[in-house]
Amino acid sequence: MALTFGSANSIYVQTSTNQGESFSAPVKVSQMNVLPLSRHRGPHIAISESTLIVTAVAGNAEATGSHAHGLASDGDLYAWRSTDGGKSWSKGARINEVAASAREGLHALAADGGGNIFAVWLDLRDGGTELYGSLSRDSGATWSANVPVYKSPDGHICECCHPSAAYSNDGTLDVMWRNCLGGSRDLYIAHSRDGRTFGQPEKLGLGTWKMDACPMDGGGLTHSKGKAITAWRREADLFLAEPGKAETKIGRGRDIAVAANMDKVYALWIEDSQLKLWVNGKTEILAESAAFPSVKTLPGGGAVAAWEQDGESQSSGCHEGRCSGYHLAARETGKLIFQHRKARISSLRRASPCQAHLSVFLPIKAESPPAALVLECKGHAAGGHVRKTGLAESPRFVHDRKYLAVAR
After folding, report:
1. Helix (H, G, I), strand (E, B) or coil at 154
2. Average pLDDT over residues 164-193
3. How far is the C-alpha of 305 from the C-alpha of 256, rounded, in Å?
4. Which are the contacts of 93, defined by CB distance < 8 A and separation ≥ 6?
5. How many domains does the chain have?
6. More reliable by pLDDT, 376 or 214
7. What does the alpha-carbon distance between residue 402 and residue 377 come to, in Å, rounded to a whole number?
8. Quick one: which of 119, 165, 129, 173 has its CA closest to 150?
9. Residue 33 DSSP symbol
């Protein structure tokens, strides 16, 4: 098991060789001048054969203006590798061929466990926001020429909703993004068999969301029984959908995350301040006050969920997800803590509160694709929501205001 997170301007990795009972001390992968960590920005990690791969968007100069919110004006997507279990790391290699084209800071990473790694990101090389990707067939040692995954005929896709990517058991690569087409901001999916060419993009769901702004909410993508399962928001409603089928409404809220195994689908989201959990049609409240949830299934069954709690969010100048002056600040500038089976993974001091992005990859059997667990505690409000969250007892494992739940 391996974990990565960003703290201030540095990227760290920790590993476990005993199923998460204990973790190594944090190892610094790299220190950057500007490391965006808001919303779904931040490092991602994959395990491919015996190699660890970390990716992140970073730069040298901080952006200015109303859309700055911690971005790098010259942001590029970098990849680092470790072949000794995370003890040492290579120098970062730039994946995007056109300098500064990944400066929006939003990307995704998918791995099939057998050497194939695919990175996809929002790209600005041609002015409008497009979706580009790059494939590695040697566990991140080299990367292919950048390939356009999708270019909207309207000039850009949704400008600040994160993409998703995942391999299915048969090796098919799926990529999902929020489009901007004909005045609508709907989710689309495209498939690839080789990581270099993509089929015709397909709109997800039958309805549409007409809006002239970015909701900053890209949804999630997973697989179950060889089928892609997507989760996403339209206005205040949340849906699950398979490609080619009508969507199913499962609740109301924002920031939905999804994971699945052979017999269960898990979805988590925020409604007002509550954290909702949906499992195969049944919904329960996991926490009264939470933010930025994520969920992933575990080898052998069950799922693990993580979220931020005991923080305070404030917003100013927000309209339909376009925000300035937003921050999520913990009441105490403490430690980044994560718990899995009662193990403290990190006790690294943060230079400022809530600037961490956490990912976990579990190396599992070849018939099941690797999974990532992401915990994030800084971002931008969606839909103009102003939220104040306070400490509440979690129904599951609790440790220093970072909360984790295991469902079986």
Report:
1. coil
2. 96
3. 12
4. 78, 79, 80, 143
5. 1
6. 214
7. 10
8. 129
9. S
State the Cα–Cα distance between residues 361 and 112, nearest whole angstrom: 12
Is residue 177 within 8 A of residue 201, CB to CB? The reply is no
Query: 119 with 92: CB under 8 angstroms?
Result: no
Report the alpha-carbon distance of residue 317 to residue 311 in Å, rounded: 20
Q: Residue type at 215?
A: P
CATH code at position 185: 2.130.10
pTM of the model: 0.79
Record the tokens describing residue 203, joined without a space. Answer: 């709109």
Quote the strand ranges of 104-212, DSSP E. 107-111, 117-123, 130-136, 147-150, 164-167, 173-178, 187-192, 202-203
User: Any bridge partners for residue 8, and if so which?
Assistant: none
The whole domain housing 109 covers 2-407
pLDDT in tens, 360-374: 454 433 333 333 333
**Residues 123, 127, 128: CA angle, nearest 5 degrees:** 70
Using the structure block, give the residue that is written with the tokens 């949906």.
Answer: 278
How confident is the model over 269-327, as pLDDT tens digits?
999 999 999 999 999 998 999 877 877 777 777 886 767 676 322 221 222 222 222 11
Structure tokens at 381: 């409000």
